[in-house]
Amino acid sequence: MKRLNIFLAGVSVAAISCAAAHAADAPPTVLEDVVVTAQKVKTDLQKTPLAVTALSGRSLEQSHIVAPKDLDNIVPGLVVNTTPSNPLAISIRGAGYEGTENTSAQPGVSYNENGVYIASPISLNANFLDVDTLEVLRGPQGTVLGQNSDGGAINVTTVRPQLGRFTGYTDVSGGNFDYDRYRLVGNVPIGDDAAVRVAFQQEAHGGWANATDVPGTNGKYPMSNENSLNARIDGLWKPTDRLTLELWAEHYSNDTNGDAYKNLLDPNPNPRELTQDWPSKMRQESDNVAFNGAYDFGFSTLKFIGSYQQGKLDGSEDLDKLDYATALPILGVHDIDVENNRDGHSYTAEVDLASKPGTKLDWIVGAFYLYQRYNEAVEEYQYNNNAANQAAYALGNYNTYAPFGLPVNLSPSNPYYGETAGFNGPVAFETRDTQRLQSGSIYAQGTYHITDNFRLTLGGRGTVDNQIGVIQDYFGLTDRNNGVPFAVLKAKFKAFTGRAELEYDWTPVNTLYVMVSDGIKPGGANLNPGAVDIPLVFAPEHVNALELGSKNEFLDKTLRINLSAFYNQIHDFQVDSEDPIPFEGGLTNINKAHVDGIEAEATQLLPFNLRVDTNMTLQESRVDSHQQLLDPALAEQIDIANGGPFNGNDVNDRFAAFSAPGGDVYGHQLPKTPPFTVNVSLQHVLYFNDGGSLTSAIHLVYRNPYYFRIYNSDATDLVPSQNQIDLNFSYKAPAHWHVDFLVTNLTDNASVNSRYTDNFGTFITANYYNPPRQFIGRIGYAF
Length: 783
Hints:
mainly beta
């Protein structure tokens, strides 16, 4: 509690420093206008004919939404799943990212920061920093936002440099679990035509759970801890009224023990205690540098955006999420990932020309280019019950990961290169591979104002993708001595996506729209040259969508209700599946599926300075074509029944299970499509005569049970219902100070936040639980 005590001492100092100096703020009488950049031009939210949720940076702070993973259940139709050692799996309306373990797979929800497409999924693990607005676009964004946005998009805009103003803020936070956060943000003008904005943030906390059997830790090896650093510098130069140049760079790093995933077969019933003995580690880094240039021609504006992005993930993980003694009788082996490294480098370039708003025809045309190189290295050990394995494990020879300061064999000529010096560990799987992607697109979109209240929008995008996967090592085979790749896999496609829409304003504050659109997510290559069912190259995923929407304001602009009804037909839906041949699983395609539903968002100003914000999602999904798939969890049971994983005796049974009637996924629900989700937030503002104000809020979320994989097994795939209550209080003083107090997970509910099945190794299924109840205090000063 020492961090919380430091915070309370700071509150006392702030209270003494505050003086009544300003007139009291007046309570709002109408709802605020919200400006979004969903289609790369600024528009009023209520006049943007898309299902868009917009959140301000201040609202993110008040709700303690500090990273993309915290958006789970907050936005209609959006589901965010964490993974133990892979990028986030984000899906909207069923379209998302089922291939988190495949470096050639692309996410179906694109992430964009300040107009830059963030290519590396690793960057989505970074915390938010100095955010102005965050927008979530639901449904295919296949025109101005690209071919890998078949589910939707998340657009983040940070606070930009301001000319002629010296401003900024700083705050310090403290809480239980040794939580602390320090932030400093400053905007510095440089002459009349330039400015620099600098933002820095350090955040840390202890683990939400403990691994109980890691040697030398007394049962207290913390998991889900954090020790992160964010920094950004953003420079703006406006030499003329027409020309704007901006260069920004940011860094994120986090050094942890990994997320606390608990095996469903863990004998310890406590969700905060994990029967694991492997000292898991996780290091994440991302660096983004971008240049934005804009020139105003008067009738139109030309923009150029270029970026370099780097993302790195180094991990060592207990794959079966158990200790040796527990894993052996259940799984036949103890499964350890001694090396799981990803290193991505991306270059993007985009140019667009957009008309000035307010004319008969609003239009935008542009071109986009992406080059990405992704390197992966995986080394997996499986310790069985033979005497040599037991002796090695007892001596601690399972600690084999070089970046953590442990001795390894560094001779490339040695067949056990990279493994523990003096011990040839039981390698179960090894790969070194590189994926290279080049993607180019051209796009155009226009809105024609037929009358003052009737509009037609048409848009299209053409895309060419070329991807090459080079496997250097595979399954313990090495060719480091001669440099000849073990396998080269190629995936190419050309596609056209589009959008057509009609909008009608039946009053100045009530709009109806109908839209047909489509989006595409690229295909890619699997690392499975010996597969008999899972393809070497999986096809692109294609979404055709129909959406009806209504955006409305009532009661003199004190009530806002936005509705959308959608039907998404998904062709070649990408899912992970196991192959009858061990080690040959990967992504495959389901021919046809659909998702349909209704989403609603409402905000109302009430008497007595009350405000209620709520949103709701109702949806259903189904696989509409017959397809045989082999569930990795079922393959695990077959392996165990035949004496242990991958001993060669289980192949016939795996073929039989693959062909069985139960292997047909026809009629199954799609992954990560909860049938019902609801959010309610009630806020009250108390205004003081000295100019200060106290904002109090309670936030409730409920989510129905849902299947997180295509196999729809009640035993392994059905995620239980989730509910959570959060509180926050914020006092804004008249002299630039503010004090916040937050309580997250008020009832200390151990709901399942995410579930994960490893598609390799022993195919275990594990739960990630909501963080426990947390108290956070914050004091800040703005200048």
